[in-house]
């Protein structure tokens, strides 16, 4: 049976259908929140020498003079056509803004993510392995991870930027290059920071995943057959943990592009996290709308993909409606 | 299949982000702006950020002399200064011949055509067209005969307007509704720059990405929130670096390029750096040619108001910029308590130590404001002091007289902050502490900019701090802040309504700068200080740092076409960069 | 699961014991500041004594208005405890309530609650949180609310899953057959079995809320300006650092580090002693 044939298409279709109520919920939530919170940007957009006349014209252009129901219906239509129109503050096509932002965000988030997963799987494996032999090493490692997790992201950013980029001058302080050969000098420091932030929780997560497996029967069997301890860990346990590992990875991906918001702001990286901060601060509703819907979509899609990947990894798994 | 998808996605992302490469330019200036540029369209260019870009691409009839201070108007696209009729209403303006628009596919054969007087008629109609919701419309609102009627009527471009026409190809005639001594300044304001109808027609609502003017630079690329690149317009009409300036222009090295053809550089990169700290750090590393000094870094550069020697040795220089501006705290005069109680407002005003604000938040860079008009503008009286000055004892006494001894029975007032900058929040904390001394308690409320503007313009704010930077160098621009016809959502955010003041202001408008106008202005200021609709805090003095490799740096608010005068000495830059790197 | 048992457990893990001691110390600090015994001068300004480096009078220096940084950091402990405890309690209450409802009464209640948390979970958290914070306005109480109202999803999911599991087990099947009141089943039978999970999730929420306060204060959405919170101090420090003023950052992040580390150590210990198999899904 090929992979394509193994995909339960009926199940996929059903799951895709459940996207609709969630999307409606998300749009409703975004819409409500925005209309309570966002403020009416037409006052600001009308400039410092505004007149009521001018404000009225702008409200009309933005569609803020329509009834709430109509405004919401427009939002729904945009959600299903993926046409968000122009940003209110930059007058740029929203989809274009995202296309521009995705590259930098990707370059900021992905390499650090992969490095973090790779390192933390290794460290988690090592900790689980060493626990029964020299538990103090495991304890030191665990405590280090906990310590790394006890520092605020903001403190990491402020102190690293000051010390490594400014004081020592090892990296660029801020900026971005569209020439990718020069880009690393801007990216190294934010990469390091996100590595520091994610290494702790990831290592602990993988460590406990592996420890979960230690008590399983197949480990005992392997041990009784005389398979070496190192081999049990690097081969048997790692292989059998593939489902939780994949879950952990897949569940983090949807947050990758939005997760580096502060990093983007501090390091001047023109990604989509910075777009969101700007959009919130300037009540740029088209961008906020696009952002929420897109991230919801990615979130739902990755949940579905994760479930589908299970079949790929472990053919015994059968998907049920209840996740 | 998923593997495929992911691979394709990855590759396309990779290509997407690699398509643009930076080429190093021999004569490139790297400038910065502290906020995102929202538009390149002149009709919306009403703040520094948009104006800096649009004034480099588009041009006006008049502009300000780059070096002379106090600043003076001179011709840009006009052949000579406008001829004004004896009744002060009709302006006849000859425009320069042989000025061409930048090349663009919108023109036949993609060759820019010659500028004609009709282009101004079109551009200003466009500014008035209600469909465009131009932010700069206020500049012309009510000024030109027939223009408001045209705007409120058909807004049909084929329909002639009495007060705005091209007499011949190179002559423009403007008729005003009433005398206005500010109109020449209006002609120099960025929204009145000239555009070409063909270009506007071709690009429609994508016009932001295709600014085509007569100016020294063309837009090469624009990545929102990140940077803009401007390149030299090779066909720019002959314009030269000024030959004269102030007495010390020569000493400051600002006259070395006198007579050179503008623009002096081939390329300008404008980086958008919204955070002050990264901007400062980038400046110290030489990644931008000029910058700002955040208040907390002042002492890194200065010692006893002088640049430190080791900083000077690294080639860092500082431009002192006396700004035509006013920083103030506004009272909403429609507030049921604050608006009705003059003594209470005066008590609050007297309880605020302006000197301390200057010291803590501005490193003593500035001048305590005695009234709304900053020094350097006409009608500024340097001998005058505000009777409502810092005096804690008097403030307490005023509280009693106001009927709230020690703040008894007084509710907590909201103090609204514009934006969430640390600096602005700290000022709020300081004020809270100051006012607690007389028993007035405030609650500091951070806002986003849209929230803040909405509160202020919908008259919902109570107490808030603001700054006004002159649109043009005339005291009228500050006095109009208190004119009753300008109340919220207009610039009179105090909602100050006073018929005596209005009368004097209207009289003011009819007067040319003169002793008579000066005397009238002093009366108006006295009235303002007595009513205290605002706490006048200070006029700022900026110390703008730049690297000495950047030549002719002389930035000034109101002057937005400054980029064409800038030049970088590459040789010196290489040398200085090494010094910066080595410590 | 008596206290005795736990104390014995602590002997095995001296680090967690140290963590417990530190948390107790912090608690004492909070009580002392609450009863105005300690750090009362946190709001006293001395404009002439702004930005003093650590000295005998001010062991951690002074800030831009000459306020004592040590006192502010101590007061910050109170703010942090408030934010952590109140919002974690709120999130826990909501999460447990909705989670058990969904898990126990399948049918449309379950569908609705699943829909609710999927919706909330799929909106980018920072957007959700800032939206709540903006709409509720400034102030400590509103910060508790914003963090509590947005922070319950993980726990809810967890509780629901546990309920589904327990419902299939014999003892609940039996209780149902006997017609035991659903509330009794939920509160007497199932909840006590998963109390450790809830406790662990509570401590995680506590830590999360304290960290979130820092970010929110930086974005201008946190506590009311003027409140001595660690987040405010860190955002002040951001601009002061290049000028060489490090004590604000050190004080706030140091106080925060030890508190969060202790809670983390304790949580880790709780997890391994209460949940011997070390479930992976709790982080």
Describe this protein's structure:
The complex is a heterotrimer of chains A (323), B (583) and C (283). With 323 residues, chain A is an all-alpha fold. Helix content of chain A is 77%, strand content 0%. Chain A has helices at residues 3-6, 9-37, 42-45, 52-62, 68-81, 94-131, 135-149, 153-167, 180-214, 217-224, 229-240, 242-259, 261-267, 272-281, 285-313. The relative contact order of chain A is 0.14. The mean pLDDT of chain A is 85. Chain B has 583 residues and is of the alpha+beta class. Helix content of chain B is 30%, strand content 18%. Chain B is built from 18 helices and 21 strands. In chain B, the strands form 6 sheets. In chain B, strands 13, 14, 15, 16, 17, 18 and 19 form a 7-stranded mixed beta sheet that branches. Chain B has a 4-stranded mixed beta sheet with strand order 1-10-9-8, covered by helices on one side. Chain B has a 4-stranded antiparallel beta sheet with strand order 4-5-7-6, with helices on one face. In chain B, a hairpin with a 3-residue loop joins strand 8 (217-223) and strand 9 (227-232). In chain B, helix 10 (342-351) runs antiparallel to helix 12. Chain B is globular. Chain B starts with a helix and ends with a helix. Mean pLDDT of chain B is 91; it is low at 16-25. Chain C is an all-alpha fold. Chain C has 11 helices and no strands. Chains in contact: A-B, A-C, B-C. At the A-B interface, helix 3, helix 4, helix 6, helix 8 and helix 13 of A face helix 1, helix 7 and helix 14 of B.
**Helical region count of chain A?**
15
Structural class assignment of chain C: mainly alpha
Label the overall shape of chain C. Answer: elongated
Mean pLDDT of chain A: 85
Spans of at least 5 consecutive residues with low confidence of chain C:
278-283
Round the Cα radius of gyration of chain A to an integer and report it.
24 Å
**Helix fraction of chain C?**
over 70%
